Records
---
Amino acid sequence: MPIEKFIKIQSSAVPVQIENVDTDQIIPARFLKAVERKGFGDNLFRDWRYDKSNNPISGFPLNEIKYSGQILIGGKNFGSGSSREHAAWALYDYGFKIVVSSFFADIFKGNALNNGLLPVQVTSDELSEIFEAIDTDTQATFTVDLVQQTFTIDASGKVIGFEINPYKKECLLHGYDDIDYLLSLKKEIAIFESKE
Amino acid sequence: MSQSTTLFDKIWDGHTVKSIKNGPSVLYIDRHYIHEVTSPVAFLGLEKRGLSVANPQKTTATPDHNIPTQDQHLTIQDALSRNQVDRLMKNCKNHNIPLYGLNHKWQGIVHVIGPELGLTQPGMTIVCGDSHTSTHGAFGCVAFGIGTSEVEMVLGTQCIMQPKPKKMRIKIDGVLSKGVTAKDIALYIISQISTSGGTGHFIEYAGSAIEGLTMEGRMTLCNMSIESGARGGLIAPDQTTFEYLKNREFSPKDQKWEEAMAKWALLKTDEDASFDKEYLFYAQDIEPMITFGTNPGMGTGVTGHIPLAASLAEGERVTYEKSLQYMGFSDGDKLQGKSIDYVFVGSCTNGRIEDLREFAHFIKGKKKADNITAWIVPGSKQVEAQAQEEGLLEIIEAAGFELRQPGCSACLAMNDDKIPAGKYAVSTSNRNFEGRQGPGARTLLASPLVAAACAISGKITDPREYLN
């Protein structure tokens, strides 16, 4: 189905300053039993967010009222491990539109893009600067402009450029998905198959 | 003159229907495996678009992630799991997709049954909504895990859109020491290059130690490619590959077999082809390995100590200490002799017949330690049957262990096979992430041999102590 268009977002951010956040942490396997795509946001970071009795664990950023927004800032190597697209669904369903890290795992990055969740890769120095900006002001805002491919720390005015595959950028800007495109290639695919 | 290319290039380029300028490749997929967890939303998507499955015979389905490993002849107790397995059956029926369901003689973990049925063949592109699809690279395939949106793409069009990864070669030269297996090679590589060292790359494994591995060993190694962050890993097919595939259920037969062998023999990297990154390791440097932290890169030789936090870059210490705290370990600890509670032998990494053989031969005539709960889970019905035929079952039972029924089981604990919070499990699976084997579970990844030694002694043990 077409994904939601992404053009420009200004928002505060939630910092999860942990490295190697794997998709088992983003959504544990026991919550993958649904046969429809709904409600995954409730179990986002389940075992970091809630204790055994389902009480919120204080100190985890998603439980802190002082943090909010559509941007998640994660540590290095975000989204490693399992290919479960449920991880991207859970983040999106919770309300995140952008994930920022200094390094993303490949499959997670692809899954995020296929769901209108924008992965923004910055350098490790820039990542530290972003964490510091939130440290200084927990409601600090950031502006993400997909057309310009920029991530701006609004308080300091620092503009950070980011890379995105031009094809994927077009898809996000217009809300296209890959299946629509592949379906338009029916003839080429049939020709390829006949040569096999 | 044609340019020298790698094996990966040959397969990838040979399956590229179209290259989008500055964009991904449209890649044709020869073989698609599906299971109950990552496929239902893809089928829903297809139905919403009013599409049918483009090539049902190029997809194969089996339930594995969610199923119990006891009493499989009974109705699945967990309603959500049952619903997912039922949905897979319904979807396969509606779309004419071959399904090896619960109690079928070919059912099993999707990455175990594909190769053992001969569905996985050299030169293929293979995908599945599971990151351990990299397993099939052992046969000289470009095989990698995908998300559910991509499962829908393959069902609907037999194609997928992917940016072409960079190429990495990892050579392991020399001869493995006694007690060192393919699993140790995998854990050693990841401990050296980290869990993100392979990101953006597709690995080709080469060198004399790799050539010396059996197909089961090669599958174990390629399976763990994703744990280094790589999209996948592959090994050029050779005589070992052909012997494994000969006379398998779906392998080509007679004249077609001869033709296939001739074609497969060409699948290798040209001598002067170049890679974006190359590593060389020596087999004799590799010990039986074990992990001590919460990602597969946090591993060391079983006789080693947990590295000091002070030896790491400052920025990495917080995550490192958090990880050790979860595990209940301190830096500097010696691993050998630490008491453990559970042993799990199984999964798409080490649930094949050779793994059960290694385990059974090691424990033969010995007894399981009293403090250990052990789950020995075959990767497939065929592995289970063969274990019985070879008498492994008797050895396993005589030593106080039980053989359960096939499935993914405690590798990801979606079924009832969960390690309780705070307990230590030596596991032959592939991930030691927090909570992977159950909320609060503490996982130590190792080979079937290390697992066997730990199961007998009840603590972390070097299997070589028993081998001499």
---
Amino acid sequence: MVEMTAEKNAYAEAFEIIEAQAGPSWLLPIRKAAMARFADLGIPTTRHEEWKFTNVAPIRKLDFALAEVGGHGVTPDRIAPFVCDGATGGTFVFVNGHFDKGLSKTGQLPAGITVGSVAEAVSANAGLLEQHLARHATNEQDAFLALNTALMRDGLFVHVPKGLVVEQPIQAVFVTTSESDPTMAFSRNLIVADESSQVTVVEVHVGLGTIPFLASSVTEIVVGDNATVDHYRVTREGELPDNGFFVGTTHAQQGRDCNMRSFVATTGGAIVRNDATAWLGGEGSDFTINGLTMIEGRQLADNHLCIDHAVPHCTSWEYFKGVYDDDARGVFSGRINVHKDAQKTDAKQTNMSLLLSDRALVDSKPQLEIFADDVKCTHGATIGQLDDEALFYLRSRGMMREAARSLLVFGFCRESLQEIRFTPLKKQLEALVFERLPHGNVFLED
Amino acid sequence: MMGLFDNANVKTTPGKVEKQRIEIEKTKMLEIRNLHASVEGHEILRGVDLTVNAGEVHSIMGPNGSGKSTLAQVLAGRDTYEVTEGEIIYNGKNLLEMEPDERAREGVFLAFQYPVEIPGVNTNYFLRAALNAKRKHHGQDELDAMDFLSLVKEKAKTVQLNEKLLSRAINEGFSGGEKKRNEIFQMAVLEPTLAILDETDSGLDIDALRIVSEGVNQLRSPDRAFVLVTHYQRLLNYIVPDFVHVLVRGQIAKSGGKELALELEERGYAWVEGESAVAS
């Protein structure tokens, strides 16, 4: 057994608690292996290539403890600002990694779909869970992913059977509370969309309370042949701007001729690290991921993408934008691996950052690894300030400086938010952007 | 939503002396005196003098690099240019002391030589904000969405601009002609007192040129003035100016009536350049 250093003791203690709980026999070996891997890797330092620009020393220094079930003091009122109205498929609320039925709202869903908590599904849908849970997101170098696998408690489970098109968006809200001591929560979601099915899932991550917390969340999405999954991951500033450490992975395991459309929105948190990975394992499939980050103060947001084009004729599209004010820091890393046989791959990656202050900083790193010879792969990154020419143009028509600036930032963000197909979420995020801008609410009317 | 687009400065009633001055200069809309401007230490305007009265159309012509666009941009308040000497009086006020947006609310309009593309912001959206900022500044009621829309319909028609373009991002994916017509459309909506057109005619085919000219001609009125910056005489077949000025090396080398444009067309800029070189 690998020797644990002092800094990891809190996690080892947590693992003992999880280990002692009853669970399916197939899961325990997976947890154990993951814990061993985490012990081996440790919380990453900036010497680690994938963590070069994101210093998680604050996470390493804190002694997080697993939050207990219940007694969390979360009321519908407290989470209301973060919940998106319009999720007619239901809103599932998880507090500190546990499903909270009282805070959740059922929706109207077609017959055949299974939606609920992973903890329940482990026995009710044992076969599917054993087949998919922790089987797809398997990056062995990712310490936080290993930690999540070792300590995962609950999360959203969605299964859409063959041919079923679910029109009602399903929402999962993950709340981490920290009232007196630093807490940590581990949620794990599984979405399985069978052949020719379609579903929309919205994840909202937020923290309540005033003490630092660590919120780890991993979502595995299995996109069957000819299926379409729309997935949204929103990380919101909670009651405090900078006490939340969010680490998460969204992994798409894609079959043939399928579409995965993802949007990652980050509007707060001390450190938000989103890994998005996709395995394009069937010909003719598409992975589209758009993102908007808007942070300020001393917040940091890191979007790490890794797409594997394993077979021919797949397409991937990544378009990430960010607005950084004050001392905010942004990191973007986009890796595209085109495997040897993945001919006719068409991959495009764009990262645009807008710096609103002289102190804001962005590191953008595209990485293309291409082993096929007949592919189209492009990437582009821009980092800049508001365009003086555009600002002058608006002002030359009579708009005051502040209003013109706000309008330009809003336009920059809105262009990205246009990609959100779930309109209530788009409107909610637009409103959030407005609120952040000086005098922003005026534009809200239109 | 209070106070977004309104003017930062509270307007005060002009004092007696100031009032008198406004009276005297009522027809004298714009007076440029000995204007020097440079960019990054390089002097481009070297003593421009120009007076424009209400109701007049002035055409500023000249070879490339003579300072025509600089003059237009300085009038609109672009801060890339540093005014090192001289003054500009606009309707009795010191124009150089005003911010670009303040000038716009006071009635100055610049049609850009290269209209800017702005992603995510559509023309209608920002134009309504701009128009309302101006209306508020002049103590008028703000237009609501419905009123604004009917105004837009009417004005878009005058420049034959497809309304659908106006709900797209500003100038994004517009053709060259559409961009220029969008400038004239905005001018028609904002109804400026002093309109400066910076090479609006450049690169237009004859149909677009006619549309743009017609848009300008419709706006001609006794209390509005135009400064047309152009490189080509052709525009002046459609918009007949009262005065033509030739700018050479940052100074007005020659002024005359509309016939000066024809003479220039015949003899070329070299003719004036030569004369101006002899004079200096």
